Amino acid sequence: MEVVPSLNSGEQAVPAHVAIIMDGNGRWAAKRSLQRLRGHEQGAEAVREALKGCDELGIRYLTLFAFSSENWSRPVEEVNHLMGLFRFFFRKEIKALCDAGIKVKFIGNISKLPEDVQGLIEEIKDLTKDNSKLILTIALSYGSQSEIAGAMRVLGAKIKSGELSPEDIDETLISRHLETADLPDPDLLIRTSGEKRLSNFLLWQCAYTEFVFLDVLWPDFRKEDLQAAVREFGSRQRRYGAL
After folding, report:
1. pLDDT per residue over 129-186, tens digit each?
2. Is residue 162 exposed (0-12), middle (13-18) or buried (19+ Cβ within 10 Å)?
3. Can you tell me which residues bind substrate (predicted)?
4. Is 225 among the catalytic positions?
């Protein structure tokens, strides 16, 4: 795990790593008597706004919760539409992401996604691998409990083979076996729509993350909302359990 200090913009503390639970697409559509699918479509514009905000603030890492492992239980029509939206977004935005110097990473059980979506993911990763202005991590088919269980299985196998002993296992070693091993832990986690829970997202990594819950529904999220959350972050004292 890379440790990156929070940045400063003038007198404003700016988090190095922001994670966002993009919630409220369905409610946004329902308020307008539209199908839920329209909310997901409009949510793509909010992603662009988040990227703009990160660029203006100098945030180096952005992690977006796009599709959880539990989302597979949603109606087939909605899941298929979401897969189509991922295809559209990845194809349409790949050049803009490259030109903006954004490196794109993915976490989650990607093998469950349609093969053509997996192919697009590999293409995006390859085309942006040398970029470094912003590291955008997209959580697709992701569940934190499954991620932690997978790390435990790997460590257990290493103990069984004699490569490790139980005494070798500590917090740092566990972090190195998570999918986010090359990322700093989030400084700030934002959840939109007014809900106040993690929903199986980055449970280990958010041990000392600051949370900001916004009432705005994700499709209405704009860079000004990110700026407001960062201001709230900057007003807090992070003690990490100390006085």
Report:
1. 999 999 999 999 999 999 999 999 999 999 999 999 999 999 999 999 999 999 999 9
2. exposed
3. 24-28, 36, 40, 68-70, 72, 74, 191, 197-199
4. no
